[in-house]
Amino acid sequence: MNTRCRWVLLGAVCLVVLAGYGDGIVIPDHPDGWLAITYHRVAITAEEGLVTTAVDQEFRNDTGRPVEGTYVFPLPPGALVQGFTLWVGDEPVAAELLPADEAREIYLSYLQRNLDPALLEYVGRGAFRARVFPIGPGESRRIRLEYSELLVLEGGVYRYVYPLETERFSTVPLEEVTIDLLITSSEAIGSIYSPSHNVSVTRPDPFSAHVGYVERNTLPTANFVLYYGYTGLHVGADLITYAAGDEDGFFLLLVVPPPLGDEPPVPKDLVLVIDTSGSMWGEKIVQAREAAEFILRNLGPADRFGVITFSDQITPLTEGLTEASADRVVDTVAKVRTIYADGWTDIHGALTLAMSWFAPDERPKYVLFLTDGLPTRGPTDTDTIVRDVTAANKAAARLFAFGVGYDVNTHLLDLLSQGNRGTTTYVVPGENLEGALSAFYRKIAEPALTGLSLAVAGVSVYDLYPRALPDLFYGGQIMVVGRFVGNGAAEIVVRGQRREEELALSFDREFPDSAVEAAFLPRLWASRKIGHLLNRVRLEGESEEVVEQIIALATLYGIATPYTSYLVREEERDMLPPPAAYAAPAGASSVGAARATQDLAEAEKAVPTDLVRDVAGRVFVLREGVWTETTYTDDASLLEVVYLSEAYLTLLEHVQHAGPILALGEEIIFQAGEVFVRIGPHGKTQLSPEDIQALTGTGS
Description:
Blueprint: H1 3-13, E1 25-28, E2 36-47, E3 50-60, E4 67-75, E5 80-88, E6 91-92, E7 95-98, H2 100-114, E8 126-135, E9 140-150, E10 157-162, E11 176-184, E12 189-193, E13 200-205, E14 208-215, E15 224-230, E16 236-242, E17 249-256, E18 269-275, H3 283-297, E19 304-310, E20 314-316, E21 322-323, H4 326-336, H5 347-356, E22 365-371, H6 382-392, E23 398-404, H7 410-419, E24 424-427, H8 433-444, E25 447-457, E26 460-465, E27 472-473, E28 478-485, E29 488-498, E30 501-511, H9 521-540, H10 544-557, H11 588-601, E31 612-615, E32 618-623, E33 626-629, E34 638-642, H12 646-654, H13 658-662, E35 668-672, E36 675-680, H14 689-696
Parallel strand pairs: 2-11, 18-19, 18-22, 22-23, 23-24, 33-35, 34-36
Antiparallel strand pairs: 1-4, 2-3, 3-9, 4-8, 5-6, 5-9, 7-8, 10-15, 11-14, 12-15, 13-14, 16-17, 17-28, 19-20, 19-21, 25-27, 25-29, 26-28, 29-30, 31-32, 32-33, 35-36
């Protein structure tokens, strides 16, 4: 049955058809009667674009006196409530549907009575409400809700939103928040991406995927957002865009492999290079042995591998690359179990030997390089080591470095990785080395497409990150963020190599002239660009031009950097590496700077902070208790409006999308039309016709 037919049938069989939207709040009759939410469990099923959401919440009265109120949940268009249960004793409580205009008046009346502007987040939506009869002190009420909605496919992906942020009305952190989402389809499932939460994704087979999110003792402040798409039987490319006003647009491209099993992994060559110098003594050498054994035992039967250990002596444990047959793996594992830590550190000799083992051919090639110290034998100069290792890499292998502890030369490791198309992972004291190596190997175990490049025709794209595309592996996906100019139909071409075959995969996608739902994209792009620029500072030194770019981007998009530390709280500032740390090649501060840079450059979501909010595609920073739009400058003229005055309500009525902005709090500075507005305790209580014209941009 196709999706449209399923939707028509769903509407026909519902006994009561109501537009619905999941997460609700209990608004008390008295301002001091807010309830605690003990748990919040959400079970979601998605089949193509048809999504059913089942919500289970429990509210508890911790106030010490009976509480009455109203259960309300906001409504987007097009969802159908299939079930709602709230029981008082043996009697079910009736609920009613409110259109958007009636819901607006209720939200405003609750706002004026409870003095909580967060309710304005929902102005402009309809509502579904039920009366909550008195809940005695210490008593609880359980509310269950189920609704279905039909999502629209855009850019090859579906966008699902669950309004988890309403839980900020709870008086205490929630003991449990659980989101469990099952995606099924007759087509192979492709990209799965959440810009809002850290989710776990498992794929039991090509046609189903399970997405999970669990957190305890938390007070959610952001809606849960998930994008998902389908690949069919080939590599897929899903497009998410953001474009507003006259500014160039932003895009996120998700490239996903075909279903595993339809096309087996490409056989690879892998060389492990393990530091066995004296500083690796103890737990580090034990974990290195265990990680190496895990990797060797998980090689594919058609793979080839090699192992090199090094201190001041270079010791090959294999005779170059060898087939990953069972007997050779067992023999090499036995040798790995005998390695011990002693001696100095010859990084130059170990890596140039590893590169010499590869022959130029179509197989993907990887070096996994593990070290915990500085070079002390052979050439020790950073430039010499990077130059010689890169020159020896005639077969274009990718080098992935693992720096263990604080004594590593971060500049050396990052330059080696960048010069050889890889990445660096830093494992600090207290973190598990074996877990980091094993988890990384799982990501690269099964190559699907190598040597990737990207071209777009029909619109102009620029400022893409990452600058060089990694290989595409089964079970993973590649994220590319960038800017675009123009709009309309475009052809996206992904080129790569699979065994001896050069592939050019073409995808027809639409770049819109206006798209504002993916409001996270500008900050995500800015995070990656700032990470790229900070890495230039680390490896090339400070320049006025680069630092000015970092400060401008960080200020506009509300991203904490060594040059914009006002974006972190006072108690968090010690966690942010100072500018001097980016120049130091080694030490705890240098490793911290390297990791902070990498977090930005490889960010999969906009960097969260308590002092920054994304609202309707705008960025606000909390400055001296005032939520201030980052485009505001001190010399800009201000229209001051008293909070909750008649002027405030008039502004809410006339300014489009003002509700979510005003929901930030009682003191805000934001742009409306031709002017900036300051909401606060002082200013106008009524607006003139000229004020309204300026606010709406309709003045002369």
